[in-house]
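User: Okay, second chain of the day. Same drill as before: sequence in, structure tokens out.
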Amino acid sequence: MRQLLDKIGTRQRLVHETVERLPEQITRLTEQLAAAEKTLQRLEITRETILELAAEDGAPPPSRCRPVTARS
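Assistant: Same drill. Structure tokens below.
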């Protein structure tokens, strides 16, 4: 019986450490996601602006200029 209680205590400590660590990881990942989304938005705006300027000059869009879709 004592061995089982020791195993439960060990497991409980490990899970407690995980619970303490996860919020920090979530915060870091949230910050990374926000930065990546901001960069993606800037790139999309840049692409649109280039296409608009090219169209104003009567230039055809570059042959490889196609929207990039997010991966699942």
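The mean pLDDT is 90.

User: Thanks, on to the next one.
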